[in-house]
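[Structure tokenization] protein backbone as discrete codes
[Encoding] learned vocabulary of local backbone shapes
[Protein] chain in single-letter code, fold in tokens
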Amino acid sequence: MKYQFLPKEKLPRIPELPDPFLRQDGSRVCSVKEWEEQRTYLKEMLAHYLYGHMPEESGETKGEVIFSRPVYHGKAVAENVRITAGRKGEITFDAELIRPVGEGRVPVFTWNQFTGRHGCPEEEELVVNRGYAIMEFDKAQLAPDNGNAVRGQAALAFPECDWGAVAMWAWGQSRLVDYLLTTEWADPDRLIATGHSRGGKTALCAAIYDDRFALCAPNGSGCGGAGCFRFLGGRLGEGTGVCETAGSINDEWGYWWSDHFGEFGERRWTYTRSTFPTPEEKRKLDAEMERATVGKTKDEDRLPFDMHFARALIAPRAVISMDALGDTWANTYGTQVVWRAAQEVFRFLGVPQNNAMHFRDGKHEFQGKDWLVLADYCDEIFRNGCPNENIICYRADTQTDMMRRMGWEDDGLHRPWSAPE
């Protein structure tokens, strides 16, 4: 189905969070069956205004183990896998994985990584003691993390696509799934998308457009991830601290997004994905840049969505966002706002426990503590494990003391709508 999306100047201002149940014709979704059609519409809306479009056909994916060795006294095996993808097999990139031995089919964390970083700080605990596999790849192999992203191998292989780097990296994360489904050890029903910071934004995008991910876990994802565009603040509430905004993320990393998204926010420059400067040109611009616009909003209320749409599109599958209370730039207040608004969709679909979040003290990192919390939530979802009471979600039989203290069971936080009854 083709949808008509308005240009920015014709979009109405929506000061509160937009209603995900509102259909294009102005009526509201009334049933779970109608939500499926609405979900298709909202996915297309996010592709148009935020991510850009991924390829409709990705070609065949192949994986070849090019190196393998036993680790942890033979209790696990580490492998290097070369992935070949694209319509003509023109895209190649390498991934690293570690998996337990003799565990049958196991759940797998797929992890988009930063260049030069390798390995989980709690690897032995997760793999050997808790029976998870971890498969990671350097996402910059698909698209450089700079203005040359539109000239990387993913962009060149699919010139018809208007996607930004986040969608290109997410597409690469889905190619790991293609490979995992050919193995005899990966559980196809327990695949997880995770990543940190821009990688958290990528994991969220990957899970929205690939239903084979059973659980999504963005860490420290902030603006364009689990955070909110309209409402900003740190751990002390709305308006406290300086948070990343649509304008600042477009000025610094506009190549992550669609050209349409580059039209929004308090901008210092006017370039977007397709006109983003090269790294050399960007350095010159940065030397001239005034910081007066950082942390300020402008026309985000013209966006016909906010990031509760993205979170809700994971439903009825599970999502947990993990953040640090000291990471004000990632908009800890806005993350709570988005979580609570998305809960209406999870409640409507009968899976209130599948929308979770966790906060810890500290700064913008993917720490071992975060990985252990993630494993606890995966155990709860996949293995009926004991709930970690520091994970905030609406479980059927209990609510955490933290939720009661914060009043998160109440309705209406920047949201004049509720789920249909």
About this structure: The two ends are 27 Å apart (CA to CA).
